[in-house]
Structure formats: structure tokens, C-alpha cells
Write a structure and sequence with these properties.
Length: 507
């Protein structure tokens, strides 16, 4: 029996999961780390925290599984996208990584748009300049920390930094590179035009490969630290959403998935390039070789839920911990007792600004309709509904682009909640299906490792044999009718607040 490891470098923590060659989970471990916010709207992480978490989780999984290291056929990666990792000549980290939910680069995005041209940028990279994308972060460092920029010799993304630490090789693949605003997604290579206009030296960027290609092998030093066998193959892996698509079997046209993790994503597979010229949703290269993905992202989906937990449910958190219970299960159970519409309360989930479809880093969270009658449970229900409404807006854009599907696969923490799933089914008016294996991105990373090392002939064939689904949650017509009125009002709220958000950002 051969085994595969999937390592998911997330925002709240790193999960390492071990699977057998049939996709059966043999063990997993998660190590958490902090998010640093030096200023309002900023978000950074220390890459050394990712590396420590990777080492600890690998050691824990290998110890629990009691599997010989030589039986591990390969290792794959999933990783939070966009995060800027800058390395010096010696390969050491220069500064904390500016990660995907950071919103500091509005001026740099304007600069990128001016230098490249709005329509030309979308024509080349399929996306507008967005504050979470890496190009803006690079220019921010260039403009605000010139000494750090001068020291930079290598630019990587989060998972690529960890893979470098394991193999000693610099590298990047097309799916994650798509989120940097510098990749020509038609050629799946760096755009010389964009790099030239932005003044970014191409030598700082590694060669772009495909997600399932072998990137290197475990070094002696990494083997001693982790318990892995020296020489074990390591594939490039993919961005977290692309890995999640593989882990849920969304690898063919007509399929889509939704995830409610820290961010929320609605993701559809496409065998051809489909681009929204208005930039409301993103088009990236898929982790499936020769394919693409079209998706919308809401920046503070599960993060909004976590914010409610941390600020309104501290006593319940303490009690749940003492009883060995899941606080999120308790919270969703409480929210289920509140009627649809949360007694006329609507939440705009823009705690970190917003990406799809409004593209506004100045947007902030709003409770609309808050009155003395409302409790924290009404607010909790409104937060959950607001997250789903925000993702429904991406569905509307995908349909406008002709990217269709008749069923949605659900993954991420939100997929484990019956209330979240039913809410999505009712608001989207589509069946919602979960996968029996809940590991999502980590499983996708392991499948990529299996394809890259020859255990599976292709990603599609691997998914057909590994992915098993549960019965679907189907829409309840009566619920959909009520949600529709609230959703229409939700869509009308932001345009009236846009100017106010901008003014607020300048106070």
C-alpha cells in the first residue's frame, strides 16, 4: 500500500493529512498560528509560523499513523493564495507576508491600472488590479519599504515557500500564480508586458509549472526535522480553491463548489477561458492541467462568523471547551431557532473590505435594520444569511457569463453545518451536495501528488475513483421565496453606502 500526504497552508492554521492510495484518510493534524493586523484593514503572517506548523503537523501525523516513511509515495500542497513572501539572497524571509485579506494597496492598484490600462490588464491576466493580489503588495513594499524591496531576490507564495523549505527548490505553478496579477493566463506564463510596466524584475519570479508536476524532493535536513524519508517526491500543488476543487471532484465543466472558510468562494470549472470584462469575478488557471476556473470570492465569510464568536459568544466558548463540545455547532443551533430574515435584520459581511462582485477595499461590515428588539442570536442569523447573499451575487455573475451548473458541492467548515447547507440551497435554489471525505483542499493536494508520482493516470480519473458523495440538501421552495425578498434588498444596500465607505476610510 502506498500513501500520499496533502499539506494545506491555511490562514488560521496548517493542516497535514495522510491518505492511502484509495483516498481514505489515515490521519491528520492541524497547527494554528496568529494573524497580525498592524493597522485597520491590514493583514500579515510570519512565514516561520507556517514552517513551524508544517513541521509539527507532519511529525504528529507520521507518529499517529505508524506508517513507514518509505511507503509515502508523494506530497502535495494546497495554500492560501496571493500572500507575498519576499526572500533575500540567502533565502531568508525579509518581512512578514502581506496576505490575501490585506486591503492596504488601493493606491498601488490604481497605479497598476494606470500603468497597464484597465482593459489591457484584464485582457492579459483576466482580472483587474485588486488589493488582495500580489502585484499590488509588491508595489506597496517598493513604494513604502524601498530597502526591503532592494534586498528582495526571490518572490514566492505561501505554499511555495514551505515547499522550498522542504526541497530547497524555488518554484511556482499556474493556478496560484494566476492570483498575482502578473500571469498571462492564456499562455500560463509571466506577462513580460505587465512586469515591464510595473518595474518588477522577472528574475525574482520562478518558472511557472503545472500543479501536478514534481517540484523537488525532500532534503536530508527536512527529513531529519519532519520524519519524512529523504528523496520523497514533492509536487507543486495548487492554490487552496483549486485544490478544493480537486478534493470535491469539481474537475469537469458543469460542476461547481462553494466553500465557507475564512473567506467564501463560489468556484466553477471551465475547459475554456471565460473572462468577466467588468472584473467582478476572477478567472484563474485551474490546478487541472490545461483547464481554467471562474469564481467569486467574499473576503470575510467564516471570518464574520468567527468575529461573532470572539465578541459575542465568549461565555459560550468557555462552557463549550469545558464540556468538550463544538462552539460552532452550538452557535448554528442557536441561529436555526431564529426565523429567516432575522426579524428584519440584514448584515453586509465586509469586515475586510470586499472582492466579488463589488471590488471595494473601503467597504465595511454593516448591520442594517438593527433595533432594540434584536438579540445576539438575531445578529448571528443575519451574519450567516449575509455571507450567503454575498456569495449568491457571484452566482448571478457566473450565470451572466454563461458558466452554468445544476448542483453545487460544498466544502470547508461551513459545509459541516446543516443550517449553512440548507441556507445555501434555499438562497441559490440549487441542490447542495457534500463529499464523504471532508478534507477538501488537503485531499486535493494528495490527489495532485498521486497524479504527479504516477499513482493515478489523471486528475479526472483519480477523482472518479476516490470522490464519494452524500445525499444532497435540496431547496425548500417556501424558504426560497422568503429569502428572495431579503436578497433583493441586500443587493440594493451597498450602492447607497459606497460613497460613505470611501469618506469613512479617509477620516
Amino acid at each position: 500500500m502506498k500513501y500520499l500526504i496533502g499539506i494545506d497552508i491555511g490562514t488560521s492554521g496548517t493542516k497535514t493529512a495522510l491518505f492511502d492510495e484509495f483516498g481514505v484518510l489515515c490521519g491528520s493534524a492541524t497547527v494554528e498560528y496568529p494573524l497580525h493586523q498592524p493597522q485597520n484593514g491590514w493583514a500579515e503572517q510570519d512565514p516561520s509560523d507556517w514552517w513551524d506548523a508544517c513541521v509539527k503537523s507532519l511529525k504528529e501525523v507520521l507518529a499517529k499513523a505508524n506508517i513507514a516513511a518509505e511507503d509515502i509515495a508523494g506530497i502535495g500542497f494546497s495554500g492560501q493564495m496571493h500572500g507575498l513572501v519576499m526572500l533575500g539572497e540567502d533565502g531568508e524571509v525579509i518581512r512578514n507576508s502581506i496576505i490575501w485579506c490585506d486591503g492596504r494597496t488601493a493606491k498601488e492598484c490604481d497605479e497598476i491600472t494606470r500603468l497597464v490600462g484597465a482593459s489591457r490588464l484584464i485582457e492579459l491576466t483576466a482580472n483587474p488590479a485588486l488589493t488582495s493580489f500580489t502585484a499590488g503588495n509588491i508595489l506597496w513594499v517598493k513604494n513604502n519599504e524601498p530597502d526591503n524591496f532592494k534586498r528582495c531576490r526571490h518572490i514566492l507564495l505561501p505554499k511555495d515557500y514551505i515547499r522550498y523549505k522542504l526541497t530547497g527548490n524555488f518554484g511556482m505553478e499556474a493556478s496560484d500564480a494566476s492570483g498575482m496579477n502578473m500571469l498571462d493566463i492564456n499562455t500560463r506564463d509571466w506577462s513580460k508586458e505587465v512586469l515591464g510596466k510595473l518595474g518588477i524584475d522577472a528574475s525574482m519570479l520562478p518558472e511557472v509549472k503545472e500543479a501536478c508536476d514534481v517540484a523537488g524532493y525532500i532534503t536530508k535536513e527536512a527529513a531529519l526535522l519532519t520524519g519524512l524519508k529523504e528523496g520523497t517526491p514533492v509536487v507543486y500543488g495548487g492554490g487552496d480553491n483549486m485544490a478544493a476543487a480537486i478534493g470535491t471532484g469539481v474537475v469537469d465543466s458543469g460542476k461547481a463548489f462553494i466553500t465557507i472558510g475564512t473567506s467564501g468562494v463560489l468556484f466553477a470549472h471551465s475547459d475554456s477561458v471565460a473572462v468577466d470584462l467588468k472584473g467582478r469575478v476572477n478567472t484563474f488557471c485551474s490546478a487541472v492541467p490545461g483547464a481554467w476556473a471562474v469564481f467569486g470570492c467574499s473576503l470575510a465569510a467564516g471570518l464574520s462568523f468567527q468575529w461573532m464568536r470572539n465578541n459575542f459568544f465568549t461565555q459560550e466558548m468557555k462552557e463549550a471547551k469545558e464540556l468538550g463540545q463544538n462552539i460552532y455547532d452550538q452557535m448554528t443551533d442557536s441561529a436555526s431557532k431564529v426565523p429567516i430574515g432575522a426579524d428584519r435584520l440584514i448584515f453586509l459581511p465586509y469586515l475586510m473590505g470586499e472582492r466579488s462582485p463589488i471590488l471595494d477595499p473601503n467597504a465595511r461590515g454593516v448591520f442594517f435594520g438593527l433595533s432594540a428588539i434584536h438579540t445576539k442570536y438575531d445578529m448571528l442569523r443575519a451574519v450567516m444569511e449575509g455571507v450567503v447573499y454575498a456569495l449568491r451575487q457571484s452566482l448571478d455573475v457566473l450565470r451572466e457569463l454563461g458558466v452554468g451548473f445544476s448542483e453545487i458541492y460544498a466544502t470547508g467548515g461551513g459545509a459541516r453545518s446543516p443550517l449553512w447547507r440548507q441556507m445555501i440551497a434555499d438562497v441559490f435554489e440549487l441542490p447542495v451536495t457534500t463529499i464523504q471525505n471532508r478534507e477538501g483542499p488537503a485531499l486535493g493536494a494528495a490527489i495532485m501528488a498521486g497524479v504527479g508520482t504516477g499513482l493515478y493516470p489523471s486528475v479526472s480519473e483519480a477523482c472518479k475513483s476516490i470522490i464519494k458523495v452524500n445525499p444532497s440538501d435540496v431547496p425548500i421552495l417556501a424558504n426560497s421565496t422568503v429569502y428572495a425578498d431579503y436578497y433583493n434588498l441586500f443587493k440594493d444596500l451597498y450602492p447607497g453606502m459606497k460613497d460613505g465607505f470611501k469618506t469613512l476610510s479617509m477620516l
